[in-house]
Automatic annotation (TrEMBL):
Gene3D superfamilies to which the protein is assigned, alphabetical: Nucleic acid-binding proteins
InterPro entries in alphabetical order: NA-bd_OB-fold, RADX
Protein name, entry field: RADX protein
Coiled-coil boundaries: none
């Protein structure tokens, strides 16, 4: 059928009601958001957004309500979608934005694609990767992997992807989302090494919409975390520690989940796999730790400094 592209949509969306089908690849995926309130009677108050792209650029796509339980887990980073009967809306201004792996890609930030179950019912088709044709001009998923030796030189809030061998994983902890709130964030600390530094990556991993992965992070697993944010302690603390925290668009993968993921082609991922082959598993297991209380960032060593 006749297709349109994101660039054409941005130029013509105000003058149309019906749009031609779109063929796009998912480049980023947010966690699932629940926005239910006791006073509002909604069956499935869920929302998730994705960044999708074609040859003309990248745009946000929002999946609403009952489409979330139906489609969220099938829509992975790298998945190619054929969309029909979608609507176009002006972008929500306070949404977080992932950092694209390809800095040259054009971003259409004024509008977003809205996928709904009614008015109209959006038609979604997943195109298997082996059927995707090069002439469609869909961009590949690109990453921003860093090694541990590069981390200390990165600025605060820099976005990056990491891969490492887990040497420590803490127990799951909770933090209140807001003071006096009944809502909590669930998170755990982990250390991962990649052979480029004596220091591990220190990772603050908040529970994303991947409970099956979050609950099974163990020492000796290969851990990939995407769209992580660098947290640099900007005080004059001489023992300052750099760590990484998850963002709204972070995805986490462990051993058993890597097969078929787009990052397996990345050069730094391949270098890491080569390094692990040179390591003795028995030696590494001796250095691993699991559970316990992990106070971080560490308090100063004297009460006066505190």
């Amino acid at each position: 059928s006749k297709l349109t592209n994101l660039g054409h949509l941005e130029m013509t969306w105000r003058s149309r009601v019906h749009f031609h089908p779109l063929l796009v690849r998912i480049l980023h995926k947010s966690r699932l958001r629940y926005y239910g309130k006791p006073e509002k009677k909604m069956d499935m108050p869920y929302q998730a957004y994705f960044e999708v792209a074609d040859g003309s650029g990248m745009m946000s796509m929002v999946l609403w309500n009952s489409l979330c339980p139906e489609w969220y887990h099938s829509m992975k980073v790298g998945t190619v979608l054929l969309l029909d009967k979608y609507t176009i809306k002006t972008s929500y201004p306070f949404k977080t934005h992932p950092t694209p792996g390809d800095s040259q890609m054009k971003r259409f930030a004024t509008i977003e694609i809205s996928l709904n179950v009614r008015d109209p019912h959006t038609e979604i088709s997943i195109i298997p990767e082996e059927m995707v044709k090069p002439e469609w001009g869909l961009p590949e998923v690109k990453y921003r992997f860093i090694t541990r030796s590069e981390l200390d030189d990165l600025p605060n809030n820099h976005s990056c992807d990491v891969i490492g061998l887990v040497t420590f994983v803490g127990r799951a902890e909770r933090a209140r989302k807001r003071e006096h709130s009944e809502d909590f964030w669930l998170y755990r600390w982990a250390h991962a090494i990649d052979g480029t530094s004596d220091q591990p990556f220190i990772l603050e991993l908040f529970a994303t919409s991947q409970p099956d992965v979050f609950e099974h992070i163990h020492p000796m697993t290969y851990l990939v975390c995407t769209q992580m944010r660098v947290i640099q302690d900007l005080t004059e603390n001489p023992s300052r520690t750099v760590y990484l925290t998850t963002s709204n668009e972070s995805q986490i993968f462990i051993t058993g989940w890597h097969k078929g993921q787009p990052y397996t082609k990345d050069a730094k991922v391949k270098n890491f796999i080569q390094w692990t082959k040179s390591q003795s598993e028995a030696d590494q297991i001796k250095k691993t730790v699991i559970g316990g209380y992990y106070p971080f960032p560490r308090p100063p060593d004297s009460f006066l400094k505190y």
